[in-house]
From TrEMBL:
Belongs to the glycosyltransferase 87 family. It is found in: Cell membrane. The chain crosses the membrane at residues 82-103, 115-134, 154-180, 192-213, 264-286, 293-310, 316-332, 344-362, 382-401. This is DUF2029 domain-containing protein. The lineage of its organism: Bacteria, Bacillati, Actinomycetota, Actinomycetes, Micrococcales. It comes from Actinotalea fermentans. Keywords: Cell membrane, Membrane, Transferase, Transmembrane, Transmembrane helix.
Length: 432
């Protein structure tokens, strides 16, 4: 990457993060960064009153979430502004590491700065929620894991597992890593297990073993959140029906939609998510058996993330931060997928991000109260996510069905007899 282009990108990086920080800290702190004040309060209880989440009672988040919440608390546990600024600096540091990795050229691969530029654009369009939640911490970890996935699966496994102990979603990336690795037990399972043992050991030492899985129970009892894709029919029906209402869950501080069939829909989504993930695992297994596990890693990871967003009964706005990781890596590795498909994915994701910010945080109040324009905007956002799901399935299906006759420019078709080595680029010689 030329020096001037690199300077321009890092200048844009600083500007984007300064802009998002200003929006969250100054312009709309109550709407955009409300969760950060909750994080600060939890750390205040822990540091000043010795009452810690997980260690002293059940918690809605995995135990590892204490770490990123604790670091900004070193700046302040009493000042909302100081804590929020420190949090934004933490996220910016992690994003900088991921951006630098997106720009780094791996041996035997084609690298483009498009991934880094796309990510910056996505952050701007998604808005302050992109950095003002735990999801802003795990997303750069997901980027780093996917970049390391084929050549350094053990590192990728550790990064994904650390991310999963902060917010559960990155755990899904273990699955495509597992199928892409040449030695899955040694390179993926064992590093993940070792990381889990460290976390469990630390929590046990703090006296919180009995609450270490409490986050799973808290998520399982949730109803249909108003922003979720599955809630769209009921949300729109508020325009003409009086028996559909939106209510606040005071414990989880989320808005849920209630009406005829919503409880059943939430339960159906729970089952649908499991079935969809199982189907994707079947596709990844087939790709491995056919010797295309390496090519399936990024499309498979993208498909899994989109499935987790679309079939999720929660559907919080910050979930769209997850999409940034696989799409940014796909854009940074232009030889890993067809150009037309990649552009369709990138463009649709940008539209979904912009529509999300149009509602949250700027018109979230009207959305909750049932304003027609806000409801239509969220419905359009959810439609964009469904389109992304279709693109994800099509992209993975093309890789799985490819018999090796369709090779990219300058690439030879690979023999389908053996999965590619996880510690070598796809075009490197394999062991015999």
């Amino acid at each position: 990457m030329p020096g001037r282009s690199r300077i321009a990108l890092w200048t844009a990086f600083a500007g984007v993060h300064a802009w998002l920080t200003w929006l969250g800290v100054v312009v709309a702190p109550a709407a955009a960064f409300a969760d950060l004040d909750l994080y600060r309060w939890w750390m205040h209880l822990g540091l000043d009153w010795s009452t810690w989440p997980v260690l002293d009672g059940p918690w809605v988040y995995p135990a590892g979430a204490l770490a990123p919440m604790l670091l900004p608390a070193l700046a302040s546990t009493t000042s909302t502004t100081a804590y929020a600024v420190a949090w934004c600096l933490l996220v910016a540091a992690l994003d900088a590491a991921a951006t630098a990795a997106l720009l780094r050229r791996a041996p035997g691969t084609r690298t483009s700065s498009a991934g880094a530029w796309w990510w910056l654009g996505y952050l701007v369009l998604l808005g302050p929620v992109a950095i003002g939640r735990l999801d802003g911490v795990v997303t750069p970890l997901m980027v780093l894991a996917l970049l390391a996935g084929v050549r350094r699966p053990a590192v990728a496994s550790v990064l994904v597992t650390v991310g999963a102990w902060i917010k559960a979603a990155p755990a899904a990336l273990v699955l495509p890593l597992l199928f892409a690795a040449r030695r899955p037990v040694r390179d993926v399972v064992m590093p993940a297990a070792a990381t889990c043992l460290v976390v469990v050991g630390l929590v046990t030492a703090g006296g919180g073993l009995g609450h270490i899985a409490s986050f799973a129970g808290a998520q399982g009892t949730r109803d249909l959140q108003v922003e979720s894709v599955g809630a769209t029919p009921w949300v729109l029906s508020r325009l003409w029906r009086g028996d559909v209402v939106v209510e606040l869950d005071p414990e989880l501080i989320t808005w849920e939609v209630h009406g005829p069939g919503t409880v059943a829909a939430a339960r159906v989504l729970d089952v649908l998510m499991v079935l969809a993930v199982a189907a994707l695992l079947g596709a990844l297994l087939f790709a491995r058996l056919e010797g295309r596990a390496g090519e399936a890693l990024l499309p498979g990871a993208f498909a899994l993330v989109v499935v987790l967003v679309v079939t999720n009964k929660v559907g919080s706005p910050q979930f769209l931060a997850w999409l940034a990781a696989p799409v940014a890596v796909l854009m940074a590795r232009p030889g890993a997928s067809p150009r037309r498909w990649r552009r369709a994915v990138a463009g649709t994701a940008l539209v979904a991000a912009a529509l999300t910010q149009a509602v949250f945080p700027w018109r979230y109040g009207p959305f909750i109260s049932g304003e027609a324009l806000a409801l239509a905007t969220m419905a359009a956002r959810n439609l964009a996510l469904v389109v992304l799901l279709g693109l994800a399935v099509a992209g993975l299906a093309e890789v799985v069905a490819d018999d090796g006759r369709r090779a990219g420019p300058g690439e030879a078709a690979r023999e389908p007899s053996e999965p590619p080595r996880a510690d070598l680029p796809a075009d490197a010689p394999q062991e015999t």
